[in-house]
Design goal:
about 550 residues, about 35% strand, 4 domains, alpha+beta, six-stranded antiparallel sheet, transmembrane, type I interferon receptor activity, Immunoglobulin-like, INAR1 protein, single chain, membrane
Length: about 550
C-alpha cells in the first residue's frame, strides 16, 4: 500500500547524423532519482530477430537522451529499441518499441571546407562528410554533389546558390569585400539533402592588372560535331597560346587535379586566336578547356575555363535538300546534317520539318508544314503550272535542338495534261459502246445456235417401227413434206372428201387410242393415216 508505480518513458526517437545515433525520450513522472536503461535488438536476414540486449551507452542514464553510436552497426537492418524507468528496485514497464532502418532515417552531415582568397577570387576545397571517420554511413563519397550558398556580409545581402565541385573557384566577386558562405552535400540518387557546413567568411583581394596578354572572352563554337575554341587578345605584342583540356570527371574527385591538364594536339604554341579541338572529343563524358597565353618574356596567364558537354554544346546544321517533280507530286530528298559524321548519325535521333509554299508574286503565301522522320518525303495536291518552294529544318526532341532552315529550293509543276484525260474518256466510252452492242448480239447468236441445234441435231427421234414411215422422212419435224407424200395424199383424195367432220373426229380419236395402245394396222386402207392432220383438214375443206 502506498507504493509508487513508475511511469514508462514516452515519445521514443532516434536521431541519426552520418553514423552518430542519439536516443531521445520524454518522461512525465514526478518521481525523483529516476534513471533510464534501454535495450535493443536487430533483425538478421537469416535468423529473424535476435534476443534483446542491453544498449551500451544507455544504462542508468539520469537525463532523457543518450548516445548509442557504438552499439548500432547494422545500418541496413531493422533495429528495435525500447527503454524503461528505474528507481532502486522499482522498474516501469517497457516503452513502446521504436523501429528503424538507420540508412533510411539518417541525415547527411555537413562537409568540411577550406577557403583561400587570392587574386580577386575565392578558392574552395570541400571534403566529404565522414572524411575522417572509420565507420561510414555513406560509402560512395564520389556520389556527393555540393551546393554553395554565398552572400556579401552586409545588411542587404543577396544570396547566390550554385553547384560546385570539391575544388572550386568562385569569381565575379567585388574586390576587397567580405563574403560569407556555407556548403551542403547532397545525394541525388536517394534524394537526400545534408546539413550545411558552419558559415565561414573571407575578404576578397584586388585582381592583378598586369596580365594584359591573357586570353579573354573564351567561347566554344560547335557545329555538326566540329568543335572550335575562340578567344580575344588585347595585347599588341607577340603572344603564343596553348589550349589545354581537362576530362570533366577529374573535377568530381577530391584530389588535386591542377597537374592533370593536357594540351590539345595541334593547338600548341599557336598565334591564332582559334583552335579546332574536335580530335579530343568523345560523347562519353564532358570536358573543361582553357587557354594559356605566354608572352615574349615567358610570362604565363590562364584564361577562364569553359565547360563542353559534346552532345549538348554541339549545334545542328541545316540539312541538304533536293526537290523533284513528277506529275503533281513534289518529291523531297533530305541529306541529314553532318551526314559524314558517324557521331551525328549514332547520337541524334533527327526529325525534319518541311515548309513549302506557292512562290507567287504575292511573296510567300499559305505556308504549309509537314514533319517526317524519314529523309524522303512527298507532297501531293499541287496546282499545275505553279512554282513551289521548299525549305527544311532538322530537329531533335531529346536534346531540344533545331537547326537553321536549309536554303530554299524551288520547282515548277508541269502544265495540266488534257490529252491523257481525253484518251481515258474515249476508251471508257468505247468500252461502254462495245458492251452495249455485244450483249444483245451475243444473246441473239446464242438463241440462233439453240434453234439450229434443235432443228438439225434434235435430242430425240420418232420410233422406227412405225410402218410406212421412213426414218428419212421424219429426221426433223420442221422439214417440209416431200412430193411423194403429196402424191399419196392425192391417191386417197376420194376417200377423204367423203369424210365428214364427225368421222374425222372419230378417226382422230381412234388414231390416238391406237397410238396409246401401241397397236398399228397393217392394212393398205390405213396408209392414209400417215398423212398429217393438217393435210386432212385441207382436203375436207
Amino acid at each position: 500500500a502506498g507504493q509508487t508505480i513508475l511511469k514508462s518513458p514516452q515519445d521514443i526517437q532516434v536521431y541519426v547524423v552520418n553514423t552518430n545515433f542519439t536516443l531521445r525520450w520524454n518522461y512525465t513522472g514526478n518521481d525523483t532519482g529516476v534513471t533510464f536503461s534501454a535495450e535493443y535488438r536487430f533483425e538478421d536476414f537469416e535468423s529473424n530477430a535476435t534476443e534483446w540486449q542491453k544498449l551500451p551507452g544507455c544504462q542508468n542514464v539520469t537525463g532523457t537522451k543518450c548516445n548509442i553510436s557504438s552499439a548500432i552497426t547494422k545500418y541496413y537492418n531493422m533495429n528495435h529499441v525500447r527503454i524503461r524507468a528505474e528507481k532502486r528496485e522499482e522498474v516501469s514497464s517497457w516503452s513502446s518499441i521504436f523501429e528503424m532502418i538507420p540508412y533510411y532515417i539518417a541525415q547527411i552531415g555537413p562537409p568540411g571546407i577550406q577557403l583561400q582568397s587570392t587574386n580577386g577570387v575565392i578558392k574552395i576545397k570541400v571534403s566529404p562528410p565522414e572524411a575522417n571517420q572509420v565507420r561510414k554511413m555513406w560509402v560512395d563519397h564520389l556520389s556527393f554533389k555540393y551546393n554553395l550558398v554565398i552572400w556579401e556580409n552586409s545588411s542587404s545581402a543577396e544570396f547566390r546558390t550554385q553547384r560546385i565541385f570539391p575544388t572550386a573557384i568562385i569569381d565575379d566577386l567585388a574586390p576587397e569585400t567580405t563574403y560569407c558562405l556555407k556548403v551542403q552535400a547532397t545525394l541525388l540518387l536517394i534524394m537526400k539533402e545534408g546539413l550545411f557546413s558552419p558559415i565561414r567568411c573571407v575578404k576578397t583581394t584586388r585582381k592583378a592588372v598586369n596580365n594584359l596578354h591573357c586570353a579573354t572572352n573564351v567561347s566554344v563554337l560547335a557545329l555538326n560535331m566540329k568543335f572550335h575554341l575562340h578567344w580575344n587578345n588585347k595585347y599588341k605584342q607577340h603572344v603564343s597560346y596553348n589550349v589545354q583540356y581537362l576530362i570533366g570527371y577529374l573535377k568530381e574527385l577530391h584530389d588535386d587535379y591542377s597537374l592533370k591538364w593536357l594540351n590539345v594536339p595541334g593547338c600548341e604554341n599557336i598565334t591564332d586566336t582559334q583552335c579546332n579541338f574536335s580530335s579530343i572529343i568523345t560523347t562519353t563524358g564532358f570536358y573543361y578547356l582553357r587557354v594559356q597565353a605566354v608572352s615574349e618574356d615567358n610570362k604565363s596567364c590562364l584564361s577562364n575555363e569553359v565547360k563542353v558537354e559534346p552532345l549538348v554544346t554541339n549545334e545542328i546544321g541545316p540539312p541538304g535538300v533536293k526537290v523533284d517533280i513528277s506529275d503533281l507530286l513534289l518529291h523531297i530528298q533530305i541529306s541529314p546534317p553532318g551526314s559524314e559524321s558517324e557521331v551525328m548519325r549514332d547520337n541524334y535521333d533527327l526529325s525534319y520539318r518541311i515548309l513549302y509554299w506557292k512562290n507567287s508574286s504575292n511573296n510567300e503565301e499559305d505556308i504549309q508544314v509537314k514533319e517526317i522522320k524519314q529523309t524522303i518525303g512527298t507532297v501531293s495536291g499541287l496546282t499545275p503550272a505553279t512554282w513551289y518552294c521548299v525549305k527544311v529544318q532538322a530537329f531533335t526532341e531529346v536534346y531540344n535542338k533545331s537547326s537553321h532552315y536549309s536554303k530554299e529550293e524551288c520547282v515548277k509543276t508541269p502544265e495540266g495534261k488534257i490529252l491523257p484525260l481525253i484518251i481515258l474518256v474515249t476508251f471508257v466510252t468505247a468500252l461502254i459502246a462495245v458492251c452495249l452492242v455485244a450483249t444483245p448480239l451475243g444473246f441473239a447468236l446464242y438463241h440462233a445456235y439453240n434453234k439450229i441445234k434443235y432443228v438439225f441435231f434434235p435430242s430425240c427421234q420418232p420410233p422406227l417401227n412405225i410402218e410406212g414411215f421412213g426414218r428419212h422422212f421424219f429426221s426433223s419435224p420442221y422439214l417440209p413434206a416431200a412430193e411423194e407424200l403429196i402424191e399419196n395424199c392425192s391417191i386417197i383424195e376420194p376417200v377423204i372428201t367423203e369424210v365428214n367432220q364427225t368421222n374425222f373426229k372419230d378417226y382422230k380419236h381412234s388414231k390416238q387410242s391406237s397410238r396409246d395402245s401401241g397397236n398399228y394396222s397393217n392394212d393398205d386402207d390405213t396408209s392414209g393415216s400417215k398423212v398429217s392432220e393438217e393435210t386432212l383438214k385441207k382436203e375436207i375443206v
